[in-house]
Amino acid sequence: MAGRTSIEGRIFANALIAVILGTSAPLALQQFGTDPWLAWSTGLLLAIIAIWILLRPLTSRLNRALESIHGGLLNFRDGDFSISLAIKKRDQLGELAALYNEVGEILRQERAHIHQRELLLDTVIQSSPLALLLIDQGEHIIYANTSARHLLYGGRPLQGHTLAQVLPHCPPEIAQAIEQRQDGLTSYLDQESSHTLHISNSTFVLNSQKHRLVLLREMTRELTRAEVQVWKKVIRLISHELNNSLAPISSMAHSGKLLSEKLQSQQLAGVFDVIAERCRHLTDFTQGYARFAKLPPPVCEEVTWTRLINGVQPLHPFRLVGSLPERAGFFDPAQIEQALLNLLKNAAESGSSAEDITLQIETDAHGQLITVSDRGPGMNDKILQQALLPFFSTKPHGVGLGLALCREIADAHGGNIRLHNRADGGLQVRLWLPWKPAG
Question: Which residues does 129 contact at the CB level (< 8 Å), separation at least 6?
């Protein structure tokens, strides 16, 4: 600090003034004939009084400053950085107070910064689709995000509860995996579809206590996409090999039929007709799989719902529930029409009457929901888990592509498809599609 005065210098100056007074007074008294012993005693007393008078303001201010600093440091210890020192002297105490105030301001800013980062981290964790649980040594849940609350406890708060209180309310497969501290994949079935989760456990020490961090990540979409890609690769390979064989077989059957006509052998011509017919059937069969394996990206556009309804109703009759939304849909009309035809065909083949097959279309701010319902026998849990897989079918002559193609179309649109049994009998399929992305 420029132009400051030293406390040590002020004390030395005041002491020097007192010494000068204490020595000059006896000399002056002796000139008036005062006894030397009395004169020097008076000078010493005068020096002591002068030192007390001169140093008292300085020591009082020094004591007050030290008490203020002491109180401020106690506030620091308690985590309160809001107190500033009002010492403006141009000396070492003023420097010390200014440094104290500067440190306090830095600590206030750091605490505010840390608080903001904690809020940001908590917001990110709470909005993450990854379910997170922090459990202490007593099996008490001390932190859980929104995904964990909805997955394990119906959206209710988890903090303060024990695992024994929470686990009975979640799917038994998840409860078992958490209780046994399993790491890896686990699957469970809810009311609509099958889900696959990846569960990981880790332990660490926090506040001198061992804690367990449980992370549950939804892997259904990733595994489904990987599974579909494998099926597509297999289908393309099989279709390629079959087509390479069917083409020459069909050509040879045609040549053989021409030869049999020249030989006028009706029996031999019939054999070649059967071979040709089976080749055509097998070609159509492989082309159906090829369409699934080579589904093009959707070309989305605005489509009136009346146009969609008029395109499918003559092919598979149904009963429309409710009124059509005023807002036009946004999707690939050819692909969604194909998906809807597949769903209506499945509903008709379930044994449900045409009057009991219903179609409902709803929209909201988030997307479009197409619901097809029937009054057939529904599906058991095992079939629900596999119904959307390629090649899986419960029909004697089914090829297992209808629902798989619907799921592939929904995924390509960024949507999803859900199947669940109706409470009063039958199956309900919900096809959800998002709106056009903003911008």
Answer: 147, 217, 218
* Same domain, residue pair 330 and 414: yes
d(CA 400, CA 412): 19
Please state, for a pLDDT cut of 90, what percent of the chain lies above it: 12
- The two tokens of residue 311 are 């395109």
Q: What is the pLDDT of residues 287-330, one digit of tens each?
A: 656 665 567 788 899 999 999 998 888 888 899 998 999 999 99
* Token representation of residue 216: 């549950």
Bridge-partner residues for 388, per DSSP? Answer: none
User: β-pairing, 329-331 with 367-373?
Assistant: unpaired
Report the b/e string of 302-329 with b at 16+ CB within 10 A.
ebebeebeebbeeebebeeeeebeeebb
Identify whether 2 is part of a domain.
no
**C-alpha to C-alpha distances, 369 to 190, 299, 410, nearest whole angstrom:** 20, 19, 11
Q: Which residues span the domain enclosing 172?
A: 128-218
- Can you tell me the distance from the alpha carbon of 138 to that of 162, in angstroms, rounded to the nearest whole number? 8
